[in-house]
Amino acid sequence: MTRKVYLLLAAMMLAIGVEASSFTADTTTPMPEVAPLSVEDEDEDDDDWEFWWSAGFDLTSNYMWRGFDQSYRGGNRNMFDPSFQPGVTLGFGKFYIELWGNASLLSDYKEFDMFLGFEHEDLLITIYDVFCGVGADFNKPFFSGENHSLTATIDYTFFDRLRLHWATTFLHPDDFVVKNGKERRAFSSYFEVAYTQPVGDCLDIEFVAGASPWTGPFWCPTRVGDEYDWDNPAQGFNVTNLGVKFSSEFSLGNLSFPVSLGYTYNPLSNYHYALLSAGFAF
User: Which of 53, 102, 206, 259 is the right S-S partner for 111, CB 3.0 to 4.6 Å?
Assistant: First the structure.
């Protein structure tokens, strides 16, 4: 009886050994590994196709654009011309539509902009339409085309610090130059380099240099005395915007309160500006 038990146990151990060796042989060729999709990756994919929105307004001591104070378009240049600037943005993933406005309180200069944008990581591409005017000019029919301009921009930021900006206007009723006796579209453009240096956790310092790379009749005039001559645009390459800005942002719940203090010098017009801005966003 004991001998039979021993024989039975030996047979069972032999069978287990054969089974184990066959399993080892099957696993010598590893199966391809598929990395599981983490919860974080799933959230990022979902965020890429979500609706989002933001809104707010700024109150600035003057409306500066590319080194020129827009209040001067009214014919009475003001170093101080408070401007109210509301805006709202509706987005879907990386695409967005923005509506933005400006109302200058002293010069009566008004502007309404519509943006279509795409933003991915450090790249930002926009196409925007500007409708603007002073006093009665702003009350012209919106679809008349007289006060509109269509501009495309591209921005790229390196190392979260160095931003390169290029803008070219494709449609504007006055954006033409005469070459070889023929009137041609000027494609007025603007190029800007900006570097931002954080100071601690609450302050950013931004240095800006911007220029018109070639004759830009749409936005880059010459200066005659204390006036801008829009009928005679500055010829060739011109630096128009040198500045520094100190900015910070405070938060309270879902609200943020950006404030900034800056200085701008326009070498083309030889004008200096001190600028103060404050607002809120949510």
Answer: 102
